[in-house]
């Protein structure tokens, strides 16, 4: 991660990042409001040599996820001192915070000669401007509190045998992501990473309740301090009516291969479980004992009706060994004596997700789920996103749902203290591809399909998340609690001390009086006694829609 900067990466390539509102599961995802360009904030003034920490007002020039490119007020079109920071950082405040906190506002050294009356300048410049809500930092803190805690027990998919679940214990929580250690792991290294809203984890007793296979632990009783996670903390699935026309064993469909997420394959329903859950197998690649069947809910966005790929011009992976190419569903159904699952049983809801082709984000490599990488949306089909990992070949791309909890805004890793994997260089790709191929040959597994798995760059060891350095962001503990250490800022050449503006003596001078949540009022005697407002928008834009599976919707 050393040397990678989202700000430099976006600036040098004119990239656009997916907005925070696309990620409802992420901090502030549902209460981001209309934070946008030109919103004003109070930030530390780094263009100053005073011995104490002072602040100045800056405006957002560009937004990239949580990250904002800021420009100090008074620089007009001069971008010489523009800087990137995480808008959720501990040193970013709404206009008026300095006055309420007794902090001085000091103009940057570079422009301090431009005006003699900075008060009048600010009042004039900020009239009608927007700023952050006064409770913004509180909302950030609240949105980073997570109900899952260490020592909680869950049922999670067995990463070696997808057809069954195992009991695991929450080892740590980072930004809502859980490091789970399988309960029967003697050295506590057999782990699995997923988000707390992942469809792969369930409450204790879930497998028995729906008829799912389950590996019993050799441990006969709970270890001291371990306790079952309350069922209400898990992601809810939609209720379905299985009494009428429903999925049946042997029906054909198309499904994302969980062991090769870049492909959508010909698949078969192998078993119908309770509560709308289905066991799915990939045609031509199944183990004889069904150990590589996997569980999807009937409303899962990862299963599709027969013909979905053809209609949406996606390459469908035919069964292994099937020679009658190009693959035709009509012929295959006749040859196998099968029927297609009824189209009306599939989930056709398409939310107004806000993603666009080319947007940047941070995405989990689901074949190595402890890794979160720099990524790009390269294709959109209804609610289905094609995620490309920057610097890697397309064979490592992954199909992911638009509401997947494994997608995050730019700056999420910095905000939560998680390690971000930068775009791969050519040398690291070649070396990792070689080691990956060797490992694949040496590893015996029942599933014989191609499993795309990315490795850590050669010569680099995983960094301890508890000791990760951060620049320009907020470090947070595993539980999501914010540490009070402010982020470092650039140091600039020393200057002769200039007179700082003292804190205002009243709440009406220079600073807003917080009369309401939505309006900040500023009064300045020098400007005819008029009222000046900083408009704040905290409304959340959220809408849902629906779309037919057979209407092409690729922007």
Topology, number of strands: 29
**CATH class value of the domain at 35-132:** Mainly Beta
- Rg, Å, rounded: 27 Å
What would CATH call the architecture of the domain at 35-132?
Roll
Low-pLDDT residue spans: 435-452, 454-555
Largest sheet, described in full? 7 strands, mixed
MBT repeats: 4-108, 116-212, 214-319, 327-423
InterPro entries: Mbt, PcG_chromatin_remod_factors
Pfam families: MBT
Protein name: MBT domain-containing protein 1 isoform X9
Would you give an account of this structure?
The strands form six sheets. Strands 1, 21, 22, 23, 24, 25 and 26 form a seven-stranded mixed β-sheet that branches. Strands 7, 8, 9, 10, 11, 12 and 13 form a seven-stranded mixed β-sheet that branches. Strands 14, 15, 16, 17, 18 and 19 form a six-stranded mixed β-sheet that branches. The model is unreliable at 435-452 and 454-555 (pLDDT under 50). This protein has helices at residues 6-13, 97-101, 118-126, 136-143, 206-210, 308-311, 329-336, 412-416, 426-442, and strands at 16-17, 40-44, 55-64, 67-72, 83-86, 93-94, 152-158, 161-174, 177-182, 191-195, 201-202, 213-214, 227-228, 252-257, 260-272, 277-282, 294-297, 303-304, 316-317, 349-351, 359-364, 372-381, 384-389, 398-401, 407-408, 420-421, 519-523, 531-535, 544-546. Helix content is 12%, strand content 26%. The chain is elongated. Among the domains are: 35-132, SH3 type barrels (Roll), CATH 2.30.30.140; 152-233, SH3 type barrels, CATH 2.30.30; 251-345, SH3 type barrels, CATH 2.30.30; 359-421, SH3 type barrels, CATH 2.30.30.140. A hairpin with a 4-residue loop joins strand 15 (260-272) and strand 16 (277-282). It contains nine helices and 29 strands. The protein has 555 residues and is α+β, with helices and mostly antiparallel strands. The two termini are 32 Å apart. Residues 536-547 have a biased composition (Polar residues). Residues 437-458 have a biased composition (Basic residues). It comes from Pteropus vampyrus (Large flying fox). Residues 425-436 have a biased composition (Low complexity). Its main location: nucleus.
